[in-house]
Design a protein that fits this description.
The protein is of the alpha/beta class. Helices cover 44% and strands 12% of the residues. The chain has one domain (3-278): Rossmann fold, CATH 3.40.50.970. The protein contains ten helices and seven strands. The mean pLDDT is 96.
C-alpha cells in the first residue's frame, strides 16, 4: 500500500470516529470505546477491500460483513453513511424510537447484513454466509468483526470448530482485541489468551497485527483472501477509545458518557488529526 492510500484510509478512520462521536453525543448514549477501536478496520473494509455497492446494497455476489459486537453500531452506521448507503443527516436519529438506527445493529438498515447485539452469534452466521457462497459457486467473502470479550461465549468456539472442519476459506474473522470489556480488563474478567493459538487448534489460518495500522489490515485481508482450505482469524491489537486521549484505555467508556469538557477535548483532538492527515 502506497503512502497516499495509507494516509487516505487513516484519515477516513478519523472521519468515522468524528461521525460516530457526533452520533453518540446527539443521542446522549452509545458505546464509545469499542466503536472507536474498530475505525481503521472499517475504513479498510469499506473504502478499500469489500465488494459492495451502495446503489445496489442487496446484490447477490457482494461481500458480507457481520458486526458481531453489535453494540458498536455507531461505528458501522457512521461508516455506512460515509459510504453512501444512507444520508449523513440520518445519523442524528440514532436511538430515537421512530428511527431504524437502534443501539444495536439491525438488518433493515441499508448495508447491514445481520442484526446483532446478542453476543457470540455472529461467527455462526458468518460461517453460514460463507458456506452458502461456496455451495453456490460465488466468489464473495464473509467478514465477521468479533469483540475480544465476546469470544468468551461458547458459541464462538463451536462456530470456529465447524469453520475449520468445513474448510471455509472465504470466512475472515477480525478480532478487535482492545483488551477491555464491560466490567474491566479482559485478563481480569476471564482471559481468552492466547487467542491465536485457540483458532489455530480449530484449523484456522491466524494472523496477528496492529489493528490501527491500515496497511497491516489491508495486507492481512489480502493474504487471508488468497489462503485456500482454511478460514482466517486476524487478531487485531487495538486500543479501546483509540483516537482521543481521555477515552483511551478507560473502562468507563465501554458505555459511559463523557463530561462536557471531555467532549470538547475529543472533538479538538479528532479535528486536529483529520487536518494532519489532509496535509
Amino acid at each position: 500500500m502506497n503512502a497516499d492510500k495509507r494516509k487516505k484510509l487513516s484519515r477516513e478512520a478519523y472521519v468515522i470516529r468524528k461521525k460516530l462521536l457526533e452520533t453518540i453525543q446527539n443521542a446522549g448514549s452509545g458505546h464509545i470505546g469499542g466503536s472507536m477501536s474498530i475505525a481503521e478496520i472499517l475504513s479498510v473494509l469499506y473504502f478499500e477491500e469489500m465488494k459492495i455497492n451502495p446503489e445496489n446494497p442487496d446484490m447477490q455476489d457482494r461481500d458480507r460483513l457481520v458486526l458481531s459486537k453489535g453494540h458498536c453500531s455507531p461505528a458501522l452506521y457512521a461508516t455506512l453513511a460515509l459510504k453512501g448507503f444512507f444520508s449523513i443527516e440520518h445519523l442524528s436519529s440514532f436511538r430515537n424510537m421512530e428511527s431504524d438506527l437502534s443501539g444495536h445493529v439491525e438488518i433493515h438498515v441499508p448495508g447491514v447484513d445481520m442484526s446483532s447485539g446478542s453476543l457470540g452469534q455472529g461467527l455462526s452466521v458468518g460461517l453460514g454466509m460463507a458456506l452458502f457462497a461456496k455451495n453456490k459457486g460465488y466468489k464473495n467473502r464473509a467478514f465477521v468483526i468479533l469483540g475480544d470479550g465476546e469470544i468468551q461465549e461458547g458459541q464462538i468456539w463451536e462456530a470456529a470448530m465447524a469453520a475449520g472442519y468445513f474448510k471455509a476459506d472465504n470466512l475472515i474473522a477480525l478480532v478487535d482485541n482492545n483488551k477491555i470489556q464491560l466490567d474491566g480488563w479482559l485478563k481480569e474478567v476471564m482471559s481468552p489468551y492466547p487467542i491465536g493459538e485457540k483458532f489455530r487448534a480449530f484449523g484456522w489460518n491466524v494472523l496477528e497485527i496492529d489493528g490501527h495500522d491500515v496497511a497491516q489490515i489491508h495486507h492481512a485481508i489480502k493474504f487471508a483472501s488468497e489462503t485456500q482450505g482454511k478460514p482466517t482469524a486476524i487478531i487485531c491489537s487495538t486500543i479501546k477509545g483509540k483516537g482521543v486521549s481521555v477515552f483511551e484505555n478507560q473502562v468507563r467508556f465501554h458505555g459511559g458518557q463523557p463530561t462536557e469538557e471531555e467532549w470538547k477535548v475529543a472533538f479538538e483532538e479528532i479535528d486536529t488529526r483529520i487536518s494532519e492527515l489532509e496535509e
